[in-house]
Specification:
Helices cover 35% and strands 15% of the residues. It has helices at 25-33, 48-61, 73-84, 88-91, 106-109, 140-150, 173-181, and strands at residues 11-14, 36-37, 66-71, 92-98, 127-131, 153-156.
């Protein structure tokens, strides 16, 4: 995907649990580049079925193929949805999966019931998974396991935390460069 091919209407941002705040690279990409944000009905108490239906509706309504840019729980959503959607193979160009939340971790399993286990089935489209050495929500080894299961190219972002606002990445140019390689 070249920079010319990044049509803002075809790039969908999928935030994780509690949405992405104003300083998050997803929000900055939305502001700067006009990418679309998938709005969920309930950011605080996410239900996998509800979130999946919302993603399915969005992809079906898109005039052409889309590129998904998921963060945290959004990555787990993409994997689950893709395994159950008849249109994932034909309507998704690729996915950038950033800092997946490991919903099987003790601390997340209790607050994100219904999201465990993480489905580790090969995605029907190209994908890149970006993990971090010190992500409190997913160890680097677990991120690598997810990448392997999903058939994703794995990229280690180094010590970047949860690759969110607290990581201090701003517009996150490295992430944008990865998006353009899909």
């Amino acid at each position: 995907m070249t920079s010319e091919a990044l049509n803002p209407q075809d790039v969908w941002l999928l935030p994780g649990w509690q949405n992405s705040d104003a300083g998050h690279w997803q929000s900055l990409w939305q502001q700067q580049f006009g990418f679309q944000r998938l709005e969920q009905h309930n950011w605080q108490h996410p239900l996998r079925g509800d979130w999946s239906i919302r993603l399915q509706e969005t992809v079906l309504d898109a005039p052409g193929p889309v590129t998904l840019v998921a963060h945290s729980l959004g990555c787990v959503l993409v994997a689950w949805w893709a395994a159950h959607s008849q249109v994932a193979k034909t309507k998704v160009r690729g996915a950038l999966l950033v800092a997946p939340g490991d919903t099987e971790q003790e601390g997340l399993r209790g607050v994100l019931s219904g999201w465990s286990p993480v489905l580790l089935q090969k995605l029907p489209f190209p994908s890149i998974l970006v993990g971090s050495d010190n992500d409190p929500n997913c160890s680097l080894a677990r991120a690598q396991t997810m990448a392997d299961g999903w058939g994703s190219r794995f990229v280690n972002a180094g010590a970047a935390g949860h690759i969110n606002t607290a990581s201090g990445l701003g517009l996150w140019d490295d992430g944008l460069a990865l998006l353009k390689t899909l």
